[in-house]
Specification:
Belongs to the CFAP44 family. The protein is an alpha+beta fold and 1328 residues long. It has 20 helices and 60 strands. It is 29% helix and 26% strand.
């Protein structure tokens, strides 16, 4: 829409009101009963619509930002397209309602009145008004008159949070609305009177649509998630009621129903998820309609939308419109058990590929009854002619938009150009000054990040860097194709074009951020695979390397020029922040990987402090309230003019508990951040930690694991009204005097800042406006134009808007141009070949490709080594044949025997010196393990060979001494370990037998309680448990015996070891066979290889047997056959146990094994109960021990006090309880050197007095020893009481002051004595 043709709604409203008052015109909409509401009774739109929020007492103007244009379309919203007249479409864009003129491309806007967004819209059948149902707290439905756009009806109280659908009846007199979560309230309105007729809860799940039957005014239908419901307005004795009947799917799978059509005879045809039509009669499915041969009516979701000219019209997610014969559908009936009716469409219109139709609105003009406008969830609006004639024009795509959330947005540094990308696989470039799209390019994968190259990299501003969901980064070059005509002579199309300059794949997951270094020499790309890749910037971008970070990358921020050192700040979604030094592009890094572990870095991991902040704020609030109350009390005393009166004591208020310290798990996500100063940065967190900006710095200690770090911000800044609405994105104006924030709720905030305020201390007052959808339109991208005159916002609802910082009139005057300047093509661009693109999503990344090349190189080197080894083996084979011949020529006592030649390990068993000699005489033959003799050398005699053998044998025997000693040491160590293990086991058994039973005796009575003695399980129970244990094989006694056998084998005698070690030497002297560790190692390796070959052969046999046993396709599973037989035998057997022919089922029969299992279970439960009781008794015993210890301590304090009191003032302490030996049986095993010395003395005395058996003597001595220990413990408690207070010297006279001090001391000590005795008495008589 051009600025000259654009007219605001307020101006039109004022003009329309003036014309109505001057001419006295009164427009009416007649209702069925004759009542009417005059449309001259309008509400004031300027008072209704939502306005920006401005911090009170601030000087921020209300018109800080002015809406210029809406570029997007929320194509994923259900029913987001309505037709008012032949040229005007209306749809919802965030908090705006857009009225779009098809012919002139002009847009008009209506803001939501609640500020919470718009839920749904619906045009009146007469097209003279339309309903706007909003979202928010207690939202309203507002009726706007068309074309004046003045509100004249407001329907209040229909739902709690949001409306999801509204619809008029056939004559437009009634309006039906249904709410969203949490109430799902269905309401029928007499909207002209602004009154509720009927209301009822629709269902407890999401409702997609509700409508009146066009043939029966008293019937309604609603559908939604997994349901369809049929309603009737019934006249009961209590009045008119809404009665609903839930649809029964029966044998058909339940499905979401997004569309349906009412038939004249009361039936309903609905769609389904799988593409077939469902014919409902009553509340049940009569038949499922499909195509011939069981084909689907549509591929994917299907929605019927109209019934005209004997055809039922349907649309689907396959981009097709089909017409079905109504008579065939109405009389359809299933022919078999399948419940389906096969039918082919009468007419069909394929709109296009990659088209997904979700709603259709028809023209209301009789001349254009076949003209429809369709909503495409792929991001387009289509104009369709459904006349199905030979002259029917092709479908026309009126407009195309992005589909889904905007993933990337950036603006040019030198022109009013904007680039966007989304997951719909397109990259679009807009001229936001002329308010139009310039060009669009489509790729194989969706875009996830976008950045416009700075002027340091590309002076003409023609380079775009775009990241995609498959990890590919593409460099796109923007140019004006019209300027190529001079060179090529061709006639180009369009005002701009994108050309692929280079494509590379640094990541294996979606690219989430791209950023150029401040000098334009390095490009950094971040991804959700937790890596950041660096590239050199030039004509061709070359990889430098990558670093790994602790979490998925959220954003990349290079240090500005004001900082001294150049650093990259990496923000991770997991709450980690990493600062790395940029790599040196000039350094060559040869290696097998691009990983850069040498880059120095610092890590910060955010730890939540919000709960602590809230706690401190609550403490400050309570203290302020106390101070205020105290001040008011003092003022009341002053006003009473009686200063001598004591202040009245207020009733003590019970303070609530302070908020606890809470750390969210998992941690809150990190949304955005930026540098404040070198080493310091601000973070905006989501989730629980929203509502603050956190000022953070890197710790000096960087040795800790980044995943285990816990770093807290050193400062914070509250963000007002943002506890549940965190900051998702931000940008500064070029002079840094405005901070623009995109919020999670889809609103935009503007904070005026003081110049040079990097600490954001002036971030207090703000201007806020709801722009995008409040539920899912998170504002993730916000940018300022290069001249700071325009602001661009993009959200997850698919909408993006442009705002001006100047009023439209001033903006028009300040702009020299009416459209942006598109960069000119480079010289020679038309002669360059197209860059090679990466189209395969599974293509290798740069790192994977380099590792693959290195593996290929290693494979080639290995093949060369294998070839060299094979050549060497061939040579050794030749030498081995010569060795075999030489062996035959040797004397018989030196010649190797056939056994040594047959076994492959024979040569390895020989000493290396022997093999060295034989290598000069023997050669390797073709047959492995065989030696071939050959004639001896002329200069070697048989005597020399025999002498040489004797020397080698004696040398090997002398070398075996240390080996034998080593074996002896190992055996001695094993024996010592066995002894320690056995002694510890015996000590454990002895202690368990002594401390098996614990008895607790009451303090003030003779009651006592003892623990259960838990012996080991009986032998039969252990055997039963072993038999019934599911993990062990049955009947494997040998395995069980092996399982219970100790691992430590009995040690052999050292002499036996020597004999065993010497045996190989003796044998070697006979058979020339020596045993050493190398031979044993090689033998084991050969055994393992043989076992592996046997295992492979066994596995092959098993596979062959498995394939041989594979049943045929027509074979029935024996288990299924057996299950059917058992079901036939047992199904319907309802005989009583008292019947004569009753037979106990197998699974209910009791046998010895089941009864044994039951007994084992009972023993286990009994043992668990006894163990629990033992634990409680032990806890009671421990409590008594602590109490007795406390009482003895308090008694000692009493005796200490009594030392300073006269004897006549002493109060005797109560008798203290004692711990009996049976209460602590484990102490019988506790001894020290003094106890052992006492035991020896008693034993000597006993031996001198009488002579008895050794066992009786030991028992008697232990009993005497326990008595002495008990007497000593008893006397220790009374030893202090024997100490008497020293009497003062007689004749010593005290002064009056000293006498008074003595009396005061006595009073204090008496009080202390009484208090301690009370505590002792309480502990003795009341604690147990």
């Amino acid at each position: 829409m051009s600025e000259e043709n654009r007219t605001t709604v307020g101006e039109q409203t004022e003009k329309r009101e003036t014309a109505t008052q001057d001419n006295g015109e009164v427009m009416q909409l007649e209702s069925e009963n004759g009542s009417s509401k005059q449309l001259s009774e309008f509400y004031n739109y300027e008072e209704l619509h939502s306005r920006p929020y401005i911090t009170p007492d601030s000087e921020i103007p209300e018109n800080l930002l002015h809406l210029c244009h809406s570029f997007g379309y929320d194509s994923g919203r259900r029913g987001n397209l309505q037709l008012l007249d032949d040229n005007t479409l209306i749809f919802i864009a965030g908090n705006l309602l857009v009225l779009f003129d098809v012919s002139t491309k002009e847009q008009r806007y209506l803001r939501s009145c609640s500020g919470g967004g718009i839920g749904t819209i619906k045009a009146h059948p007469s097209k003279e008004c339309f309903a706007v149902a909003e979202k928010g707290i207690q939202p309203n439905i507002i009726m706007y008159e068309y074309p004046s756009l003045r509100p004249f009806c407001i329907l209040r109280g229909g739902t709690e949070r949001a409306y999801c659908f509204v619809d008029f009846n056939q004559d437009g007199s009634l309006l039906a609305s249904v709410g969203a979560d949490p109430d799902y309230m269905l309401t029928l309105w007499d909207w002209r009177r602004e009154e509720v007729m009927l209301r009822c809860k629709a269902i407890s799940q999401e409702v997609y649509q509700v409508s009146f039957s066009p043939y029966n005014p008293g019937l309604l239908t609603s559908s939604g998630s997994g349901h369809i419901k049929f309603w009737k307005m019934a006249d009961t004795y209590t009045g008119l009621k809404l009665q609903g009947l839930m649809g029964n799917f029966g044998k058909t799978a339940a499905t979401d129903i997004k569309g349906y059509v009412d038939l004249p005879d009361g039936k309903v045809v609905s769609g389904s998820d799988w593409g077939n039509l469902l014919l409902w009669e009553g509340n049940a499915i009569k038949v499922e309609i499909c195509r011939k041969g069981g084909g689907k009516c549509h591929a994917g979701m299907v929605q019927p939308f109209a019934l005209e000219d004997g055809q039922l019209m349907t649309i689907g997610y396959d981009g097709a419109v089909r017409g079905w014969d109504f008579e065939s559908i109405d009389t359809a009936d299933s022919t078999g058990d399948s419940g389906r009716f096969e039918l082919e469409p009468m007419n069909e219109l394929l709109v296009g590929h990659n088209v997904c139709l979700s709603s259709v609105v028809k023209s209301s003009q009789p001349s254009d009854s076949f003209i429809c406008f369709a909503q495409d969830t792929s991001g387009a609006i289509w104009k369709l002619d459904l006349s199905f004639t030979y002259t029917t024009p092709d479908p026309e795509c009126l407009f195309s938009f992005h589909a889904g959330a905007i993933q990337g947005l950036d603006v040019s540094r030198i022109s009013h150009l904007m680039a966007t990308t989304t997951l719909d696989r397109t990259v679009k470039v807009f001229d936001f000054l002329a308010k139009r799209e310039l060009t669009s390019s489509r790729f194989n994968q969706g875009g996830t990040a976008l950045s416009w190259a700075p002027t340091l990299v590309n002076q003409i501003g023609s380079l775009l860097v775009t990241g995609f969901e498959d990890g590919v980064v593409r460099l796109l070059e923007l140019y004006d194709p019209q300027r190529l005509n001079v060179v090529t002579g061709r006639i180009p199309k369009g005002d701009a074009k994108l050309r692929l300059k280079q494509a590379f794949k640094p990541h294996r997951a979606p690219v989430t951020a791209v950023a150029y270094e401040r000098n334009g020499e390095i490009l950094a790309t971040g991804s959700s695979d937790s890596t950041v890749f660096f590239f050199t910037v030039g004509e061709k971008y070359k990889p430098i390397g990558f670093v790994r970070v602790p979490g998925p990358v959220q954003a990349l921020e290079w240090t500005p020029h004001s900082h001294g050192e150049n650093r990259l700040l990496i923000l991770c979604q997991s709450g980690h922040v990493v600062e790395v030094h940029p790599p040196d592009p000039e350094v060559q890094r040869p290696g097998i990987t691009f990983h850069l572990p040498e880059l120095s870095s610092r890590t910060f991991r955010f730890r939540s402090i919000k709960s602590r902040i809230k706690r401190e704020q609550e403490i400050a609030r309570r203290q302020a309230a106390k101070d205020k109350k105290q001040k008011e009390r003092e003022e009341r005393l002053k006003e009473s003019k009686q200063p001598d009166l004591e202040p009245e004591e207020d009733e003590e208020e019970v303070e609530e508990e302070l908020p606890s310290i809470f750390i969210p798990k998992p941690p809150s996500p990190l949304y955005c951040g930026f540098y404040s100063s070198p080493g310091h940065f601000w973070l905006s967190m989501g989730g629980y930690d929203s509502g603050f900006l956190y000022h953070c710095q890197f710790s000096e200690e960087q040795d800790q694991d980044p995943l285990q770090r816990q770093d807290e911000p050193f400062d914070f800044l509250p963000v007002l009204n943002a506890d549940d609405d965190p900051i998702r994105s931000f940008t500064f104006s070029s002079d840094r005097q405005l901070l623009l924030c995109g919020m999670h709720s889809g609103s935009i905030r503007v904070y005026p800042l003081q110049p040079g305020d990097h600490s954001l201390s002036s971030m207090q007052a703000y201007w806020a406006l709801s722009v995008h959808d409040n539920q899912y339109g998170h504002l993730r991208h916000i940018r300022c134009s290069y001249d700071d005159l325009l602001v661009l916002t993009a959200g997850d609802d698919g909408n993006f808007f442009s705002f001006s910082l100047l009023p439209p009139e001033e903006l028009k005057k300040g702009m020299q141009r009416k459209k942006a300047n598109v960069p000119s093509p480079r010289v020679g661009l038309e002669n360059e070949a197209l860059a090679q693109d990466i189209e395969d999503p599974a293509a290798c990344s740069i790192e994977s490709e380099k590792q693959k090349l290195d593996k290929d190189r290693q494979r080639r080197e290995a093949e060369l080594k294998i070839a060299a080894k094979r050549k060497k083996l061939a040579e050794l084979n030749k030498k081995f044949q010569q060795l075999l011949i030489t062996n035959q020529s040797l004397p018989e006592h030196v010649r190797l025997k056939p056994e040594a030649l047959i076994e492959p390990d024979g040569l390895h068993e020989l000493p290396m010196s022997w093999l060295g000699l034989w290598s000069n005489r023997f050669t390797i033959g073709e047959t492995p393990g065989m030696l071939v003799d050959r004639p001896a050398q002329p200069n070697q005699s048989e005597a020399d060979m025999g002498l040489w053998f004797q020397t080698e044998v004696s040398r090997d025997r002398e070398g075996e001494g240390p080996a034998v000693r080593l074996v002896r040491e190992q055996v001695a160590w094993e024996a010592r370990e066995r002894w320690q293990h056995s002694s510890s086991e015996n000590a454990g058994r002895f202690k368990d037998s002594l401390s098996k039973v614990v008895t607790v005796v009451a303090i003030c009575s003779d009651h006592r309680v003892s623990t259960y003695s838990l012996p080991t399980l009986p032998e039969h129970s252990a055997q039963l448990r072993h038999q019934t244990r599911p993990g062990w094989p049955e009947g494997d006694g040998a395995a069980a015996a092996e399982h219970g056998r100790p691992r430590v084998e009995p040690a052999k005698d050292s002499s036996m070891l020597e004999e065993e070690d010497l045996c190989p030497l003796v044998a070697g002297s006979e058979g020339v066979k020596l045993g050493d560790r190398q031979m044993e190692r090689l033998r084991k390796a050969a055994e393992k290889a043989e076992q592996a070959r046997a295992k492979i052969e066994k596995r092959k046999q098993e596979w062959a047997q498995l394939y041989a046993e594979k049943p045929s396709e027509n074979c029935e599973d024996p288990q299924d056959v057996q299950a059917i037989v058992e079901a036939k035998e047992n199904l319907g057997d309802l005989k009583l146990k008292s019947d004569k022919d009753f037979t106990m089922p197998k699974h209910l029969r009791m046998n010895a094994e089941r009864k044994s299992t039951e007994l084992i279970g009972l023993e286990k439960k009994t043992r668990e109960k006894q163990t629990e009781m033992n634990q409680r008794i032990a806890a009671l015993r421990d409590s008594k021990v602590r109490l007795v210890s406390q009482l003895h301590s308090q008694t000692q304090q009493v005796l200490t006090v009594q030392l300073r009191l006269p004897a006549h003032l002493h109060r005797p302490p109560p008798t203290l309880p004692a711990i009996l030996p049976e209460e602590t049986p484990e102490k019988r095993l506790q001894f020290n050197r003094a106890t052992l010395e006492r035991y020896r003395r008693l034993r000597d005395q006993r031996m001198q007095s009488m002579e008895q058996d050794e066992q009786e003597d030991s028992t008697y001595i232990l009993a005497q020893l326990e008595k002495e220990v008990g007497r000593e413990e008893g006397t220790l408690s009374h030893s202090a009481s024997s100490v008497t207070r020293e009497e003062e010297e007689e004749g010593a006279e005290l002064s009056e002051l000293e006498e008074e001090l003595r009396r005061e001391e006595e009073i204090r000590l008496l009080h202390e004595q009484d208090s301690l005795l009370e505590q002792v008495c309480f502990g003795v008589y009341y604690r147990i």
